[in-house]
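Q: Can someone sanity-check these two? First one:
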Amino acid sequence: MTETYTTGLLHRAQKTGRGTTSLSGCVFKDLNRAVASLGIVSIVACLLSVGCSNSESKAGNVRAAMNQAVPVSTTQVRQQDMPVYLVGLGSVTPLNAVSIKSRVDGQLVQVAFKEGQHVKKGQLLAVIDPRPFEVQLSQAQAALFRDQALLRDARLNYQRFKGLLQESGAMSQQQVDTQASLVNQYEGTVRNDQAQIENAKLQLTYCHITSPIEGRIGLRLVDPGNIVHASDANPMLVVTQLQPITVIFTLPEDQLPKVAKRMRNGVLPVEAYSRDNQTKLDTGKLLTIDNEIDQTTGTGRLKAQFNNSDGELWPNQFVNVRLLLETMKNSLVIPAAAVQRGPQGMYVYVVKPDKTVDVRPVTVAISQNNLTSVASGLSPNDTVVTDGQDKLHAGSTVETRPAGPPNGQAPGTGSSGQRQGAGSPAS
């Protein structure tokens, strides 16, 4: 290339008539430029060759990475019954809670219970000084004895006056009628005395306070020796029925028609869980639905009853309630983590026998307690990916490791049991 370029310079010098000296200077200057140009071209060629080799190396690394197995967690699709729960928030409410107050005025002389004691219906709880009422009873009995004697005398006189009037006319009709009225007056007085006696006996009964229900006693609010009155605002103690006990909880108004429909077909089971949704406290049954909806919250109130045999439920306790609405038989169940959502809808990664994955569109029927029931798109014993989907695409090679069973999920952490809309599957 240099020789060709030099020959061209000589021909140009001959045509222009330049001297040898000027020709030599021109040649050497152009030669320097040519050499410099050749150096730049060589450098660019080297850089291009290095860049191409780096690109080919990176492409090879990418292809190698794509061919590597991606570690994922998998589980098999299971065919099992899928319970449908409705989840609500509730508060424990006793069937009966009685505030015990005195019905008479007097001094509290005896407390026959211990705080926290379980008492039976009719069991003695406290005694108020009965002596003033015993005196009243004695006075009423004495008045009755006196008035009964007066009544007997009035009846005898009435019989005498009536006989004299009929036999000899020695007694006037007016006197006989007056005596008859006197008899009636004494009869009324005697009946009043009998009522006074009954009232005194009733006051004596009120002096002995008994439990009106079976339940548990709370803290004592009045100590022995204090004067209690029937008009006192605060009770002496509170007896609360704990077995059985009820829970009042709320559900959205849109779910109430389905609950009412299921109630007509049978009893609906209800489960009560602790505040953190980790501990199952008791299992009961749904009693009734309230007759109106709260407009401020758009919810309806429901009442469930629990036996509470272990004493896990306490009045005013906050609980999470799960109402078993129905059970879907022989559903295809997978963990909810296996379902992915894309622009075209819901899909899962299915592991094929050759350890590659396939993108399978699915239709979700319901999601409940970290489990998902699939209506279409899967078959029993298909293997789906539950973890590591972010590194996968159709045809990826995977290295599987088993995940936990789909039915080993913590209760109470899922959705409210509403059926999901069937999204279009991802491509």
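And here is the second, same format, sequence then tokens:
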Amino acid sequence: MTCPVDWTPEADSQLASLWLHHAASRKAITEAQAQIDHLLGANPLANGVAVSEGLYFVAAPPLRALYEISDDNRFVTVTAVRMPP
């Protein structure tokens, strides 16, 4: 199964802010974002952990992303991203 993965404007903004404020980690952040897209595009249910009904998270160090899966399991939307302390 291949699912399209989209990032909300808020998640894009959070990712950009992390990238700008963590200069030493820019390469790792870029690679983690690509890994998140790959994992969620390949199989969002198997590659994430349920947080609450309809909300999941995936970890690709140094990032963690929250995401939702459409009702028909064919589209993934990343809603937030952060770097845990």
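A (reply): Looked at the second one. The longest strand covers residues 63-69. The first helix runs from residue 9 to 21.
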